[in-house]
Task: inverse folding
């Protein structure tokens, strides 16, 4: 894993804990752990909060549909999504 991706993953974990007012810490979030549903058990409102924060912080929009399901499947996938869309911009 690149240093850039590792830093982004850590930043995203911090953002998730902050945005979701969660009962877990950054250390509790595995890189490949599911975010919505099973795993961290975040709900659609949490996903919306994360999507808005990603747009504000990284300038990347997460649209609905298959792309959003893939992006929210794990922190690692969310980092990949952000990196690929920033590169395309």
Result:
């Amino acid at each position: 894993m690149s240093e850039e991706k590792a830093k982004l993953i850590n930043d995203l974990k911090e953002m998730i804990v902050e945005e979701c007012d969660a009962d877990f810490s950054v250390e509790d979030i595995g890189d490949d752990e599911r975010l919505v549903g099973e795993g961290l058990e975040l709900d659609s409102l949490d996903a919306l909060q994360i999507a808005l924060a990603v747009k504000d912080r990284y300038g990347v929009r997460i649209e609905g549909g298959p792309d959003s399901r893939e992006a929210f499947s794990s922190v690692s996938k969310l980092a990949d999504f952000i990196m690929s869309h920033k590169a395309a911009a």
In short: The chain has a mean pLDDT of 90. The radius of gyration is 12 Å. The CA atoms of residues 52 and 79 lie 15 Å apart.
